[in-house]
């Protein structure tokens, strides 16, 4: 079941995780990004139980990531669509898929998904870029610092990062 420990936590990452809910919520969002929009499609794609699927769809809807639209009246049936907020999750699918491929976690001999530009047909990848120079960065090139919304707990987390860098530099013989 989902963790309920994110209430009141000042952290954008925790907020996104709380809105998604859990692994089933993430897989439902994956399916929506892929174009699956109906209950039976979600069941077939992931093997999720009816009770879990119903609960996660309600959770995603309550958190503003999806909306429900009737497509049949008798019996009433619904399809689910990403909201503008939910569409902001789509790049996460690309990142997770490409990380999974890089770590050979897909369970397939080759990547099961390719992401292509609709305009050029070329492969699409994710990356980290300096917004002022356009230079591509590695994760080691990035400093994480306090933002304007940081609270005391976030400042403490960041102080632990600095302590770790000092320890790592001392262990490697690098000047701190």
Automatic annotation (TrEMBL):
<dbReference type="Pfam" id="PF01638">
    <property type="entry name" value="HxlR"/>
</dbReference>
<keyword id="KW-0805">Transcription regulation</keyword>
<dbReference type="InterPro" id="IPR036390">
    <property type="entry name" value="WH_DNA-bd_sf"/>
</dbReference>
<dbReference type="GO" id="GO:0003677">
    <property type="term" value="F:DNA binding"/>
</dbReference>
<dbReference type="InterPro" id="IPR036388">
    <property type="entry name" value="WH-like_DNA-bd_sf"/>
</dbReference>
<keyword id="KW-0238">DNA-binding</keyword>
<keyword id="KW-0804">Transcription</keyword>
<dbReference type="InterPro" id="IPR002577">
    <property type="entry name" value="HTH_HxlR"/>
</dbReference>
<feature type="domain" description="HTH hxlR-type">
    <location>
        <begin position="11"/>
        <end position="108"/>
    </location>
</feature>
<protein>
    <submittedName>
        <fullName>Helix-turn-helix transcriptional regulator</fullName>
    </submittedName>
</protein>
């Amino acid at each position: 079941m989902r963790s309920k420990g994110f209430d009141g936590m000042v952290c954008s990452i925790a907020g996104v995780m709380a809105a998604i809910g859990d692994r089933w919520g993430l897989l439902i969002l994956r399916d929506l990004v892929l174009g699956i929009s109906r209950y039976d499609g979600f069941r077939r794609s992931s093997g999720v139980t009816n009770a879990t699927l119903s609960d996660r769809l309600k959770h995603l809807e309550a958190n503003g990531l999806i909306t429900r639209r009737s497509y049949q009246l008798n019996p009433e049936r619904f399809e689910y669509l990403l909201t503008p907020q939910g569409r902001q999750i789509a790049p996460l699918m690309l990142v997770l898929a490409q990380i999974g491929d890089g770590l050979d976690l897909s369970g397939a001999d080759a990547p099961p998904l390719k992401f292509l530009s609709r305009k050029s047909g070329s492969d699409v990848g994710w990356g980290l870029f300096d917004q002022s120079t356009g230079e591509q960065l590695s994760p080691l090139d990035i400093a994480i610092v306090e933002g304007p919304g940081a609270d005391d707990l976030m400042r403490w987390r960041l102080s632990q990062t600095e302590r770790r860098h000092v320890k790592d530099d001392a262990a490697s013989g690098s000047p701190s």
